[in-house]
Write a structure and sequence with these properties.
- By secondary structure, the chain is α/β, with parallel strands linked by helices.
- The protein has two domains: about 170 residues, Aspartate Aminotransferase, domain 1 (Alpha-Beta Complex); about 240 residues, Type I PLP-dependent aspartate aminotransferase-like (Major domain) (Aspartate Aminotransferase, domain 2, 3-Layer(aba) Sandwich), CATH 3.40.640.
- The strands form three sheets. An eight-stranded mixed sheet has the order 2-9-8-7-6-3-4-5, sandwiched between helices. The protein has a four-stranded antiparallel sheet with strand order 10-11-14-13. A two-stranded parallel sheet has the order 1-12.
- Helix 10 runs parallel beside helix 14, helix 11 packs antiparallel against helix 12 and helix 12 packs across helix 14.
- The longest helix is centred in the C-terminal third of the chain and has 23 residues.
- The radius of gyration is 22 Å and the shape is globular.
- The structure holds pyridoxal-5'-phosphate (PLP).
- The site of pyridoxal-5'-phosphate (PLP) has 14 residues, from helix 4.
Length: about 450
């Protein structure tokens, strides 16, 4: 091309959660079965969508207006329902005009970072959910700035680290919270949320709270939405139906804008999001049509309770099977359907491996790079057929570890996956023992 066409941030766009799938598919083509523990799609993992939800969708699909465009902000019936439900929960009160629908939160996330002033930065948690961290890094053309979630402290955010970075980087305009968190399953206690709101207030920042898993927090987790503690701080909360219904293929999510009257430049920024969406006309109509009918149905919350109970049961089982390995740090999640294991310092070394068949070795070999946790993940995929996501390359982290899901609905199969994973970890971690003794001699 006669002129540069690649955006300077292009190399920051990477989604390892899906990229590993190409390698896994190549292994599957050799005839080896793959256990997909990488992607957070409950439906693809075999969870049944209840018949009553399908009936509501079928009825809505029979209405001509479900095929029409919807207003840019979203259908009034959906926005009114969400605003009413939000206001009944207490905390900040909103109107349907404070809501804006998107084609999934993926769309909301890329629109929000794309609409920010090129110099404005948003600090997010480490480990980071890559849709946020990559989109923010691509917007800035520079690595995403993160604050530490501390695996030695149950994944609590390191607030001193957060505030120090906010002070050191005057370009930081906002803080991201993911609550419950992906990939750790951490749920922010109310006092931690309040402390983050306080940091935002003192440094004149706004907040972005991704609450896509907020209705999948486990009982007793102390889950509080940002709305309950936000006070007068400008903020954007994000929700969607991908994980809740679950209907990730509907591409339906929305943002709730709080306190736009408190800051003229936040108000202008919020308007620019609406203007950006107007250029696209609107978000998908059918899921908005069914949203109040499904969420307002008496069966909805009891249905979510059964799902959450299953995730919590599997999380407990995973801790039972993996929790005593001395090389790993594992905390039971308090919400969502992921678990993250961190390798303690020194547990991973370059000489470790798992036995691979020649055909599989030819596929896995070229993937083995510098990141030690990614090496383990590719050996696990090649030798045991279990597909998980490395923490360092998948979640923009300086920690070594991996994330797996709690979505396998067949609990006997889930148990077998855990046992295979445990065996693979034990074998891998000890696989260079002879070599180490030789070197020490
Ligand atoms: C924390 C978080 N935010 C947003 C998304 C994107 O969701 P959507 O399907 O609405 O694009 C995901 C999907 O996994 C997620 O885990």
């Amino acid at each position: 091309m006669r002129t540069q066409i690649v955006h300077p941030g292009a190399d920051n766009l990477r989604y390892e959660i899906r990229q590993i799938v190409e390698v896994a598919n190549a292994i599957a083509a050799t005839g080896a079965p793959i256990r997909w523990e990488n992607i957070g799609d409950p439906v693809a993992k075999g969870e049944r969508v209840p018949d009553w939800i399908k009936e509501i969708v079928t009825q809505a699909a029979a209405e001509d207006l479900s095929f029409a465009y919807s207003p840019t902000k979203g259908l009034m019936e959906a926005r009114s329902y969400i605003a009413r439900e939000r206001n009944l929960e207490g905390g900040i009160q909103i109107t349907p005009d404070d809501l804006l629908f998107f084609n999934g939160l993926g769309d909301a996330i890329s629109t929000i970072y794309g609409a920010l002033h090129p110099r404005a930065r948003v600090i997010g948690p480490n480990p980071a959910y890559p849709t946020h961290s990559s989109a923010e890094a691509a917007h800035a053309g520079a690595p995403h700035i993160t604050y530490r979630l501390d695996p030695e402290n149950g994944w609590k955010p390191d607030l001193a680290d957060l505030e120090a970075k906010v002070i050191a980087n005057p370009d930081i305009a906002a803080i991201i919270i993911i609550n419950p968190d992906n990939p750790t399953g951490f749920v922010y206690p109310e006092e931690t949320l309040a402390a983050i709101v306080d940091i935002a207030a003192r440094h004149d920042l706004f907040l972005i709270s991704d609450e896509i898993y907020s209705n999948l927090a486990y009982p007793g987790s102390g889950m509080r939405k940002l709305a309950s503690v936000v006070g007068k701080v400008p903020a954007i909360a994000m929700r969607g139906i991908s994980k809740e219904f679950p209907w990730p293929g509907s591409r339906c999510g929305w943002i709730e804008i709080y306190n736009r009257d408190q800051d003229p430049s936040f108000d202008r920024f919020a308007r620019s999001l609406l203007e950006a969406k107007m250029l696209e006309v609107c978000a998908t109509t059918l899921p908005q049509k069914v949203l109040p009918r499904v969420m307002g149905d008496a069966r909805y919350y009891p249905y979510l309770e059964t799902r959450v109970a299953a995730y919590e049961r599997r999380a407990r089982r995973a801790v039972e099977v993996l929790g005593d390995l001395p090389e790993l740090i594992i905390h039971p999640p308090r919400g969502a359907f992921y678990m993250t294991a961190v390798f303690r310092g020194g547990a991973l070394r370059r000489g470790q491996s798992l036995p691979l068949e020649a055909q599989v070795e030819a596929i896995v070999g070229p993937q083995l790079g510098e990141a030690l946790d990614a090496r383990f993940v590719y050996y696990l995929l090649g030798a045991a057929g279990i597909c998980v996501v490395p923490l360092s390359t998948g979640f923009n982290s300086d920690l070594q570890g991996f994330r797996f899901t709690l979505l396998e609905p067949d609990e006997a199969k889930f148990d077998a996956i855990l046992q295979t994973l445990r065996q693979a970890l034990v074998t891998y971690l000890a696989s260079d023992a002879g070599h180490r003794l030789e070197n020490a001699a």
